[in-house]
Amino acid sequence: MARRSVHYEAAFESYLRAKGWPYVLVDEAKKAVFAQAAIKSFDFLVYSNSGPNLLVDVKGRKFPDGSRGGQASRAWENWVTREDVESLQEWQNIFGQGFVGMLVFAYWLQGPPQRAPFADVHFFRQRYYAFAAVALEDYARAACPRSAKWQTLAMPAAQFRRCIQDVGQML
Predict the structure, then answer these.
(1) Sign of the torsion angle spanned by Cα atoms 1, 17, 75, 81
(2) What is the rounded distance in angstroms from the CA atom of residue 3 to the CA atom of residue 25?
(3) What is the rounded CA–CA span in Å between residue 10 and residue 25?
(4) Coil, strand or helix: which one is 120?
């Protein structure tokens, strides 16, 4: 299993297993070095029968329950660090044709699954999760700086909602 202390990654691995999709968990204890530069690891290599294989970096976020006055502005939280994007782009270059960088946002649903705007909801360790994937290329093209101090980026929520896909659609 993924790092058990990171419930978002463990939930995504449970989801992959439940769907029967082949994957490799990337060992973060070994930071790869290519051309004298250390590159931040991604989380999963997911193999596809119908398209490119996915280099997945999982980003955990809470998804508020809008029916109870939840913060709608935080519903599609999708920020990442600049290093996340640059490292995943580098991995995509290293792996080459047949591999695509993918950011998977693992949303921990804060309300009942029937109120969530997701068709595919996964139950794991007494919590509900939904997974929204966006191709690295689409994310990098549309992302805007969020914090200069923290070197974070984010896609505008409306554009993010148009770009996300169910992980299963890519496999």
Answers:
(1) positive
(2) 10
(3) 10
(4) coil
Single out the residue of 165, 157, 167 nearest to residue 79, CA to CA: 157
**Ramachandran class of 151: left when φ > 0, alpha when ψ lies in -120 to 50, beta otherwise:** left
> CA angle at residue 94 from 165 to 37, to 5 degrees?
115
b/e burial code for range 74-88 (CB count within 10 A of at least 16 → b): ebbbbbbbeebbebb
Q: Could you tell me if 104 and 131 are in contact, meaning their C-beta atoms sit under 8 angstroms apart? A: yes
pLDDT digits (tens, 9 = 90+) for 145-166: 999 999 999 999 999 999 999 8
Q: Report the share of the chain in percent with pLDDT over 70.
A: 87
| pTM of the entire predicted model | 0.90
Closest by CA position to 53, among listed 86, 24, 82 = 24
- Sorted by where each starts, the structural domains of the chain and their CATH numbers stand as 7-170 (3.40.1350.10)
pLDDT digits (tens, 9 = 90+) for 42-67: 999 999 988 899 999 999 999 998 66
